Here is the input.
Amino acid sequence: MMVTLDGTIVAVANPAIQKDLGASLADVQWITNGYLLALAVSLITAGKLGDRFGHRQTFLIGIAGFAVSSAAIGLSTGVELVIGFRVAQGLFGALLMPAALGLLRATFPAEKLNMAIGIWGMVIGASTAAGPIVGGLLVEHVNWQSVFFINVPVGIIALAFGLFILLDHRAENAPRSFDLPGILLLSGAMFSLIWALIKAAEWGWGDAKTLLFLAASVILFVLFAVWETKVSEPLIPLGMFRSVPLSAGTVLMVLMAFAFMGGLFFVTFYLQNVHGMSPVDSGLHLLPLTGMMIIGSPLAGAAITKVGPRLPLVSGMVATAVACFGMARLTPDTATLTMSIWFALLGLGLAPVMVGATEVIVGNAPLELSGVAGGLQQAAMQVGGSLGTAVLGAVMAGTVSDSFGDNWIKAQLPPLTPEQLDLAEKGVQVGIAPVPEGVPAEVAQAITTVAHDTFVSGMNTAFTVAGVVAVLAAVVACFTKRGDNAPAGAGAAHI
Here is the structure.
């Protein structure tokens, strides 16, 4: 809950942090990017730590560290400290997520694992829904520091329950050593990839710096794969990927996150900048999406237990594709009811994918590698989300660049200099109408209409691409099946 909540709640607090601490736009971006990079780079290594020392210990350390880092952010008086402690938050969050899945995998027998993962998915859906609403209320009525302080009581409760309830599960053949060169190579590859995706919008996809980091990522991934075949106890035994269902589940998580996070990135701008909603109101309008994830995740767990993951996964991605194509038809004036239908269908489609793909990845991995498998699942989501945001962001930027100038001229608005046009396009990419101060009301309305129509056109194109990716994911889902190793969890040793 803490990790997912922080993924959405901080976006609401960023404007207040920027104003209070006098931070630049680059500083505010680092508040998000520092957390994302630390989380994505560390997930698989953190999963290995859990496999080596036990997921209970890793989980409790992650909780304590995340809560302390959150308190430190709230007490920070400079943006540099905020960024530094956000990186620490990401590192401790990386300990939490794979350990949670490892604990579920080792605790529950096969016939109950899917329901357990379904409840886990329900908590993720609930905290995702709560983020913008709780964040908006806290920033508006308390202060931005309270957004981080809220993790402290949650952490204390989780730590208390964890100490008394969680059992220490260890596989008999758990790893006994660390693959330090493998950790360095994989961490470098993940950093280069995520950094390139984060900066692509600023640098441009054809820029030498973007291509350099992407090339470095490919080279490091290749070196990592070669090294893993030579070391006696690798970080990720590549034999894991001989399992077609596990490989398909990993690819499915990437594609699902691409469509979901990449598309959702624009929905918040659509609701706030086009429809003029507050962060709290936009969060409430997204409740059909997150609400269906909350309701659908346990139901999906029960269905997957009965019929296996393949049919729910394929059906879920088909529903996701239909929802994306539906949202590709939104207009600046679309009514709340119509939006809610597409949001609800998207949440209903995502629920079985979140649960089923997780079970396919974790359940098809050997018990002694359940932490690595949990890290792989989370890393796939981070890569997919970053890739979706970057690629669909490029689609939006391209659409705005191609059509905004022409739309401005067709509306017979005053001509813009190249500098003014470039500045206006950057605002339009997030749905902001570039209305100068003091212009007549009818001119302001014409500018707003052009800006919103152009933004929605770009958003529609982005959702069409997301829908195509969802269709591809439905095809990949056909290669999944129930985890062959899931029953091993029922016999895990308690220490």
The radius of gyration is 23 Å. Strands lie at 169-170, 493-494. The chain is about 80% helix and 0% strand.
